[in-house]
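Our collaborator T.R. sent over the components below with a one-line note: 'Predict the complex.' Nothing else. No constraints on interfaces, no templates requested, no preferences about which chain binds where. So this is a plain run: every listed entity goes in together, and whatever single assembly comes back becomes the starting point for the next discussion.
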Amino acid sequence: MSAAAGGAARCLSLDDWDLRYQQLKAAGLQEPWYGGPLRRHVDDGGDLRLLKLRFDDSPAALRLWNFLLTEEERLHAARAAGKKIVGTMKDLGTVPVLVYSLPNALAFYPDGAWWAPCVMELNEGCLAAAAQHGLDESFCPVRAMFGAFVTGTQFPRPDLLTCSVGATCDDFSAIAQRLEALGFPVLWWEIPARRRPDAGEEAVLLPGGFSAPASQVAAVAAELERIRATLETLSGERLDEARLRAGIQAANKVRRVLARLRELVFRAPDCPLPALELLIAEMLAIHFCSDREEALTVLQKLLAETERRVRTGRAGCQPALQPARVFWVNPVADLAVMNLFEGCGGRLCGTDFMFGHALNEIPEALPPLEALARMALSDPMVGPASERADRVCRDAQSFGAEAVVVSRIPGASHCALEGEAIGAAVRARLDLPVLELEVPPVSDALRPTLRTRLEALVEAVLERRRRKP
Amino acid sequence: MAGRRVLYSSPYVPAEFIAAHGLQPYRVFPARHARAFGSGANEGLCPYAKAFVEEAASDADAAVIFATTCDQMRRASEPAQAPGRPPFVFNVPATWQSATAQATYRAELERLGRFLVRLGGAAPVPGQLAATMLQYDGARASLRAARSDARALEAAEALVALYQGTEPRASASGGAAASGPRLALLGGPLFRDQFSLYDDLEAAGARIVLDATETGERTLPAAFDPAAVRADPLGELARAYFGHIPDVFRRPNDGLYAWLARELAARRVQGVLLLRCVWCDLWHAEAPRLKERLGLPVVELDPSSAVPAAPRTQARVQAMLEIFT
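Returned assembly:
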């Protein structure tokens, strides 16, 4: 059944959601403790960007948004309950698995503050605070994290900060160094530049299909052992193999749900979930938004809604009837651009939001730290751009994408060359149109340009579709 | 020196290790290039990384080594690939405090050795690496000894000559300025066509008493311990390079500040010119901290866009010198 037959969900504005929320409550909607109308995040939290976004209309999406926007409250509650809070910078999904293996600790992702300027439409003060310390707009918007630490907003001061360095972007490494100099001690750990094994060198196949020398896996495992030992000291709890195995299994549960969700969203004839909600859902895999069990529940609800829509042929709030199927590379600093993309007639058919390694299942049969080391090394950002491009091509082809968007992150050191490498590979191997665009945290001033470029891409796709025999 | 030329830019690549394999180490000090490579405009690309790739590409027979000391150089290794000429990406850990980091650097040296053999080099026979190391160590000692009497340009040219196996370019003028504000140059690398900045500064009345740029004396390895060289040459190479060279990319980079505190005091430096290329996040982010920690006037210059004689550069330098008059 097509969207035309099954109907489509409505894209709701925040005003629409006020009414929708009343209707759902009247119909008996049950919510977790962090539930409530989305409006309160604007009224109480200053999340002004919500006024300009369009949302999926399901209770599952409501729960997703409420979960995302209440992370700070969860962190404060955890602190009050005596839990240890670990800020895991840059690794995007590795150290959190270790942290959540402990009964009395949780991890959060300080880098996530990079969305604060967008969500609060620059009223959060984070970028301004960073700029006052010399971290101006020539740096990636992740400099908002620095401002969040300085201003003490967004999240409580963590009990431990970890940061992966080595094959990471210079912006982040430099900003984290400045943080440490301000009196936020950092446990640095090395993630080497992944390389292809030399001839005759022992090679290891990584989750997701890349390979690396066994020596690099061993080196990363040794680094994770340092972190494991530090976490034991911090928490006063043993972080033994049994706990680590259980932690990996729990993380894999989240990853499996997300994998199923992605498959449905990218492959269904009518897109069952909007791009914006999928982006948020994927982000949960990195650090579970400070509550691993609840993150799983949130994703399961979203998956159930998506499955129901696919089953009944009811599309998500997709404005176009035959949208262009687009693979999206890199997350956008302004969430509104995902709405804009769909408004221009696109739908997501594959993503690489820079943390593919956090979506792959962690091998459960291996010693835990080795398994996590393999996962960490499968990070698309630590290897050659050509390998990331390989994976983009493979996935774009698998999901039937008709075009690729490479979303540049302003100022990010990796964006200077990688977009060109990915674009060249996609054009050469898949013969697909590629669009590279740059999205700042609040893109309103660029909206006409972004719209024009996205519309042109969609038109190019539709034209190619018409010409196909 | 015979053998294929091996190009590199990072001071963490030991020239003597390449030379001991019978190949010709050649540290590239590139000039600025205006041409973009690839099809894109290279927006956001470090101009030094770009210039290095361009210079490397102009020597089609040479092998190229990139180091991972910054993200831009790591990533620039890919467009630098040419058919039949894969570059060697030397993984220099950002961390240094763990046994893993130190072992990684040493293992990378061993891997580099295998790469050099594949290029046509020969693994050093016993004693050969040690002898080469001591030869280079002696040259560096001479360079250090001559530094206090030399003008900054002469010292810089001598360092280039050491790492390119050439004779230093002849200098047009005499010894170092006897008076004038005592300045240090600090920061990333200086482009080859901007070495005139040294003379320009001295002509303006400054005395450059410390060259702590990436192309200057800051990045010289520690002097070797001859006994350690004979006992474990690879270990001594790792100690002198990885264990010693202070740099902004290291995490944490306390070693840079310790080195600066020592050298700035020893040379009685009065002011610092911080040279950082546009898009160099590492030095850019560190600039405010340097200004706060060094307790000296610090003026930033962008060597990638500012021709030494450009009015803006001149004005900034002149303003700094006026502080001391």
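Summary for T.R.: The two ends of chain B are 49 Å apart (CA to CA).
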